Amino acid sequence: MPQPAPRLPWVTVKYAQTLDGRIATRSGESQWISSETSLVYAHALRAQHDAVLVGVGTVLRDNPRLTVRLVVGRNPLRVVADSALRTPPDAALFDSPGQTWLAAVTPINAARCRALEARGGRVLALPPDGAGRVDLSRLLAELASQNVQSVLVEGGARLITTLLRERLVHRLVVCVAPKVLGSGVEAVGDLGITRLAEALTFQRSAFRLCGADVLFEGDLADAREPAFGPPEEAESR
Ligand SMILES: NC(=O)c1ccc[n+]([C@@H]2O[C@H](COP(=O)([O-])OP(=O)(O)OC[C@H]3O[C@@H](n4cnc5c(N)ncnc54)[C@H](OP(=O)(O)O)[C@@H]3O)[C@@H](O)[C@H]2O)c1
Hints:
Blueprint: E1 10-18, E2 22-25, H1 36-48, E3 51-55, H2 56-62, E4 77-81, E5 100-105, H3 110-118, E6 122-126, H4 136-145, E7 150-153, H5 157-165, E8 171-177, E9 184-186, E10 202-210, E11 213-220, H6 232-235
The structure holds NADP nicotinamide-adenine-dinucleotide phosphate (NAP).
């Protein structure tokens, strides 16, 4: 019997890049590539989504809080894709109001799990994907089953790449800042695309100015069907 398709939340991926497509310098520094106006918009997006998702690489490099501070709004649930529970128990995530969930793969390291739970984290134990990392469609389905209807992904590059490769992204929001870095962390890695005809394309898209930056927003044409629509405020962009 074929398995029914998992119910997925609406997934928005948002990142800030330079003109040459870098989301961080070679040393991993990314705060801040975009202008203040774009940062305010990023916080508004956070407030609109039920959850914000990052990879553990971003937690280790940036130690983000992932809270809503530059606009008035509620803090989303924070979720980290963290196969081996590498998130440090003293991460700023745990000092911030709101909940933090860590998606890890089985078997779970019990000592790390206890240390993170002692800081208020909730560990979701998921079976690994083919590469031994968090199976992102399983994670998203798990979030949807807990009534998380919309997820804002805020990086980094590896997490974004897997989500795009697996067609799990419904909307892409890219802030392009008038800066050039040369070598650095590229926003999107290998998607397995070799022919131009295979490029990801958009059903609806628009560019607009956002402070000193240009903001692109588009809905991906071939994404896996979400069980929920975009968050309401995001609809009226
Ligand atoms: N400009 C921006 O908008 C922006 C935003 C965010 C971050 N950044 C920058 O991006 C850099 C971090 O990017 P990154 O690529 O190193 O890290 P990342 O994408 O934040 O995290 C990658 C890690 O997530 C874990 N993971 C678990 N399941 C995964 C899956 N299915 N697919 C992919 N990753 C999975 C893996 O670690 P495990 O195997 O241990 O689970 C992986 O190494 C930093 O320099 C940061 O400053 C920039």
